[in-house]
Amino acid sequence: MEEFIILVGSAISGFSVGDMIIQLIFLVFLIAIVVGTILFIVKFNKRNSRLNEIEEKLDGLLSDKENKDL
User: Transmembrane segments in this chain: where (predicted)?
Assistant: First the structure.
């Protein structure tokens, strides 16, 4: 039993503040990748919908102009 306590104690003391900082940096980096990907997809969808709206307006204007020319 004493050996187990010593092994657990040495494992806990082996985890330093530097290790925690590195783990936090990697966690923040992983979260940034996920958030960046989501924001990219959302912006792409908004841009695509805006382009579709502009295309519809332009088609309407062109059809109105063709109707007036007739």
Answer: 20-42
Burial class (CB in 10 A: 0-12, 13-18, 19+), 53: exposed
d(CA 70, CA 67): 5
Quick check: helix, strand or coil at residue 16?
Answer: coil
Instruction: Specify whether the backbone of 16 is left (phi greater than 0), alpha (psi in -120 to 50) or beta.
Output: beta
Instruction: Return the residue matching tokens 């925690």.
Output: 20
pLDDT in tens, 11-68: 556 667 788 899 999 999 999 999 999 999 999 999 999 999 999 999 988 888 888 8
Domain spans, the chain: 25-70
